[in-house]
Amino acid sequence: MQSIETIIHVAIEVLDWLIIARVLLSWVSHDPGNPVIRFIYEITEPILAPIRRIMPRGAMPLDFSPFVAILVLQLVQRLLLSLF
């Protein structure tokens, strides 16, 4: 059971860091053709896109979906770990 808990923890933590990297990339100019940047976008988009569809679009230009995604991932992690 310890290894499953470790895998869940590491997977969620990696996703958290990839989301943070994507936020940081949005602040600087980058080459979207770069394989590393494409990887980050391909991994994080399936997590962020549904949240963007649900969140209301207000007058604020800030995208809060990464923040919400990290919160949801933390909740999922706690839920999964509580099952073991």
Summed up:
This protein has three helices and no strands. With 84 residues, it is mainly α. Helix 1 packs antiparallel against helix 3.
Mean pLDDT across the residues is 92
In terms of DSSP E residues, the strand content is under 5%
| Overall radius of gyration | 15 Å
The N- and C-terminal alpha carbons lie at a distance of 7 Å
Q: Quickly count the helices.
A: 3
Number of strands: 0
Order of helices and strands: HHH
Q: What's the helical proportion of residues?
A: over 70%
- Uncertain residue segments: none
State the secondary-structure class: mainly alpha
The biggest beta sheet is recorded as: none
The shape is flat
- Give me the oligomer status: single chain
Can you give a write-up of this model?
- This protein is mainly α and 84 residues long.
- Helix content is 76%, strand content 0%.
- The model has no long low-confidence stretch (mean pLDDT 92).
Layout of helices and strands, plus pairs?
Blueprint: H1 2-26, H2 35-54, H3 65-83
Helix pairs in contact: 1-2, 1-3, 2-3
Keywords, separated by commas or semicolons:
single chain; mainly alpha; flat; 3 helices; 84 residues
